[in-house]
TrEMBL record:
Protein name: FecCD family ABC transporter permease
Cellular compartments annotated: Cell membrane
UniProt keywords, alphabetically: Cell membrane, Membrane, Transmembrane, Transmembrane helix, Transport
Coiled-coil annotated spans: none
Ranges that cross the membrane: 56-76, 88-105, 111-131, 143-163, 190-211, 231-256, 307-327
Organism: Streptomyces bikiniensis
Lineage: Bacteria, Bacillati, Actinomycetota, Actinomycetes, Kitasatosporales
Topology of this chain in the membrane: Multi-pass membrane protein
PANTHER family: ABC TRANSPORTER PERMEASE PROTEIN MJ0876-RELATED, FERRIC ENTEROBACTIN TRANSPORT SYSTEM PERMEASE PROTEIN
């Protein structure tokens, strides 16, 4: 198990290193010169003020979404319960966009964006909870209601465009998900939020492991299933809201990465929760590096001056393809 954690941590470091050298404006040699204390003022600014905080935000957001997805799947005993299909992510996007359109939040007030995203995520989770029933144990029913809730919240987000067309850039950014333009302010806001709620989720690892076995077993062990599930959902909503407020909605990260973590580290959440955090960080950071390299290749092939491929588009496409492959290889499996 220690070897698995070490390999995954090394993979995170590799992904972070690749992302630091993947962007435009600097050669890999210039990156290493700056890391070694050299380079001119422009190169130091690009690396230390633009690329480094972007990399850290990608790592933190990926960890938040992966942990939130594993907490949701464990609390609801539903392998399809990810932030994307439980109303949490679209609700957080709606909250952030609505607050920006109303002038209550913006890029100059990131804390207000986090609070608005958290309120929207709570509203989305509550709406699904009311529609699917307090049990939430039927995966198919929860998934169907989650799609409906996400569609409704997405429609409300689109209505914001009709009221405030000037917010098109913000809406697209939060709907697709991107790390473009992230600076130290975003990181300084994200890391304490992620650390606090991630620690809270890890403290709930024991109760969540019991909930994965069913409410009857949890009650027999003396656990209040309703209270533990409520606390777990609060942690998942807060982690998702923090990630959405930082980078927008990154598709399929919170749905698929938890399955990878459980497959590698087992069903004991005391190990799989930290494993999910590392895996999510590696996935998002690696995807962002690939997105930057792809943007440079596409800009060269199309002879375009500037072309930016958002990381959210890449994670959505790759995640959907991976999910389709899994379903086709196991057509008789009940999800």
């Amino acid at each position: 198990m220690i070897r698995r954690f070490a390999v995954l941590a090394a993979l995170v470091v590799v992904c972070a290193g690749v992302e630091l050298v993947a962007g435009r404006g600097m050669s890999p040699g210039a990156v290493w010169d700056v890391l070694g204390g050299g380079g001119d003022a422009t190169e130091r600014h690009i690396l230390l003020q633009l690329r480094l905080p972007r990399t850290l935000v990608a790592l933190g957001a990926g960890a938040c979404l992966a942990v939130a997805g594993l907490v949701l799947q464990s609390a609801l005993r539903n392998p399809l319960a990810g932030p994307e299909v439980t109303g949490v992510t679209p609700g957080a996007v709606l909250g952030a966009v609505a607050a920006t359109a109303l002038g209550l939040a913006g890029w100059d007030s990131p804390l207000a964006v986090v609070l608005a995203a958290c309120a929207g995520g709570c509203a989305g989770a509550l709406l699904l909870w009311l529609l699917a029933g307090h049990g939430g144990g039927d995966p198919a029913r929860t998934a169907v209601h989650g799609v409906l809730v996400s569609a409704v919240l997405g429609g409300l987000t689109a209505m914001v465009l009709l009221v405030e067309p000037g917010e098109l850039g913000s809406v697209v950014q939060w709907l697709v998900g991107t790390t473009e333009g992230r600076v130290w302010e975003h990181w300084h806001l994200l890391w304490p939020w992620a650390l606090a709620w991630g620690a809270a989720a890890w403290l709930l690892a024991g109760p969540l492991t019991l909930l994965r076995c069913g409410d009857d077993i949890a009650l027999a062990a003396g656990l209040s299933a309703h209270r533990a599930r409520t606390l777990a959902l609060a942690c998942a909503v807060a982690l998702t809201a923090g990630a959405v407020a930082a980078v927008g909605a990154l598709g399929f990260v919170g749905l698929l990465v938890p399955h990878l973590a459980v497959a590698v580290f087992g069903a004991d959440l005391r190990r799989s929760l930290p494993g999910a955090a590392l895996a999510g960080a590696a996935v998002v950071c690696g995807a962002d590096a690939v997105a930057q390299l792809s943007s440079r290749l596409l800009a060269w092939a199309l002879e375009a001056g500037r072309l930016a491929l958002p990381v959210g588009a890449l994670t959505a496409c790759l995640g959907a393809a991976l999910l389709l492959v899994v379903v086709r290889r196991a057509p008789g499996r009940t999800f």
